[in-house]
Amino acid sequence: MRTSIIICLSVCTLLFFMTSPLEAQIPRLINYQGILTDTGGSPITGSHALIFSLYSDSAASATLLWTDSYPAVSVDEGLFHVILGNGAAIPDSAFVELALWLGIQVDADPEIAPRSQITSTPWSIRAAMADSAGMVGAHSHDDLYFTESELSTPGALNDGGNPVDWTKLKGVPGGFADGTDDVGGPDGDWTINGSDMSSAVAGNVGIGTPTPSVKLEVAGMLQTDTLKIPTGAAAGLILTTDANGVASWQPAPGTGDITAVFAGTGLTGGGTGGDVTMNADLAGSGAATTVARSDHEHDAYSDTAHAHDNRYFTESELNTSGVLNDAGNPVDWTRLKGVPADFADGTDDISTDTDWTINVNEMYSGVSGNVGVGTNSPAAKLHVLNSNGNYVHLGHDTYGVFGYHQTGANFGYIGSSQYGVYGKDSNTGSYGFLGGGNTGVAGHSSTAAGISGTSTSGYGIYGFSDFSWAGFFQGDIRVVGSVTEGAAFSLIDHPLDPENMLLRNKVVVSPENLLIYRGKVTLDESGEAIVTMPGYFKALAREEEATVTLTSVGRPFLTGYEWRSDGAAFIVYGDPGRDVSWTALAGRDDPVSRQLAMPVEEEKGPDNGVCDRGEFLYPAAYGYPANRGADYQTQQELAPEK
């Protein structure tokens, strides 16, 4: 029920002026009357729940200052009376605002809009005189109140006889309002001792910065009469800094009398002032005027009979065939130049590498790792790379076996996460796979057969399914040979209800290769009509054995027919002007049918290639188990594992 309120009377007596001492508490009550109607303006009678609220403004976002609920207010012909403040007292703080707005909610309805502004009664305006302390006159005061004269007399406040209460001061900063000395009081980080203030705990002090990074950080210029840095100090040292500005005491620069540096024999550079650079000539001729180094060249000893150890040889010895590395003249391994890194440490990395085991003529590895042939970065257990870019992977993370031909971009692999076997010829766009995610066997070719199967004694292609088609062809099917079936059907959408039903028709079975022709003719005024057969009829059929069935249309009448002598047409006889339906049947007798002809009845046995004695094409139809089927063994061998 939507409601509205018409305010008829609002009497508010919150403050009144008194000339006598304020000995009684002013009642914080509002006498409120109103008329409650429905949205049509009709007065309401009964008990209703009312909620009253005081706000700082009429806007929805205004501050709520006070609220109280009255669960059962008696309403008689719309009139009700409530004294606000009887339940939840109206606080003095509510009347600090310069304006107040009253909001009212009836039962579960939203608060009535708009809110009503609280106004004063005429004589209550007199209460404004209370704003002037001069009206108090010679009022005696306690520690809360002072006369205007006392407040205006210099030095009269806060003396022994006229103390000012700290809690009554206005505008006290937050750091002092709690009456706690935050600097010299309870903060244990700092100690005030007379004129000294100190801190003994870990921490930094910042002047001009709230985030000091060292013990004392001054953001700005520091001025002092004296400066003392005792650490590292000694007589004669100077104060200097490093690149980060960290100061320390260091020895003063020398005061020698060197005035120039000159390059001597084998040296270049020098100078007479500033920083001086000297360079050494390291040419490797071995001349006395150059600076020797450990890897410089040297010529042969002039003394050919000079005794040598296992590290040096005469020029004659180095040029004599067969004298090196024999028992009497060994070559020190560590003095050989250009030794490969794998051998320079003197360790046989092949025979001692624990990754590989050499057993006579076999070498194998039992740990994780790949082997590369033609590549030093194998990507599989065995990676063979040809110089023309062809490669093979065995034991890859993705494929079991993978082969790639660079020239034609052809590839194939065995055993991946998607296919058992996959092959692709990128030149023709052909591909095929065994064991795919949705297909057991698939083949695709842009120019040739997608899948081809041949056999000299078995099945060219074998298909089997427990629950669906053993073979599915989308498109025309061509059979070169005969078709053997148990039953044949045509399956289409039912023409009367194609969305919900199927229509299955059986195929007519005959022991003959039968040709069927049909049609309808109208007999002329003489009661005759000629039916001409297709031009290929005589070449395709045994026309001499062809039969015709006639059906009169409408009221029965006698009909008859007669083949013409050439066998290419027949004549229908009957009542003039009447219609006759006809059907012609003939046996097929062309060269293909004669070549593919098969007997209607045939004994079972090994010679017919279909079924041996004691076997069945459909054993279940005759109550025999599946293993009595003619193709049972083949089906077991070719059927996929389940």
Please provide a written account of the structure.
- With 642 residues, the protein is mainly beta.
- It has eight helices and 34 strands.
- The strands form eleven sheets. It has an eight-stranded mixed β-sheet with strand order 19-20-21-22-23-24-25-26, with no helix packed on it. The protein has a four-stranded antiparallel β-sheet with strand order 4-3-6-7, with no helix packed on it. The chain has a three-stranded antiparallel β-sheet with strand order 1-2-5, with no helix packed on it.
- A hairpin with a 4-residue loop joins strand 23 and strand 24.
- The radius of gyration is 60 Å and the shape is flat.
- The two termini are 72 Å apart.
The percentage helix is under 10%
Stretches with pLDDT under 50, minimum 5 residues: 7-24, 131-139, 298-306
Net shape: flat
Provide the β-strand percentage band: 25-35%
- Total beta strands: 34
Euclidean distance between termini CA atoms: 72 Å
Radius of gyration: 60 Å
How do the helices and strands line up, and which of them pair or pack?
Elements: E1 3-12, E2 30-38, E3 46-55, E4 64-75, E5 79-84, E6 101-106, E7 116-117, H1 148-152, H2 174-177, E8 191-193, E9 196-198, E10 205-207, E11 216-218, E12 237-241, E13 247-251, E14 261-262, E15 267-271, E16 278-280, H3 315-319, H4 341-344, H5 349-352, E17 356-359, E18 362-365, E19 371-373, E20 382-385, E21 391-394, E22 399-405, E23 410-416, E24 421-425, E25 430-434, E26 441-444, E27 489-493, E28 502-506, E29 514-522, E30 528-532, H6 537-540, E31 547-552, E32 560-563, E33 569-573, E34 579-587, H7 591-595, H8 632-638
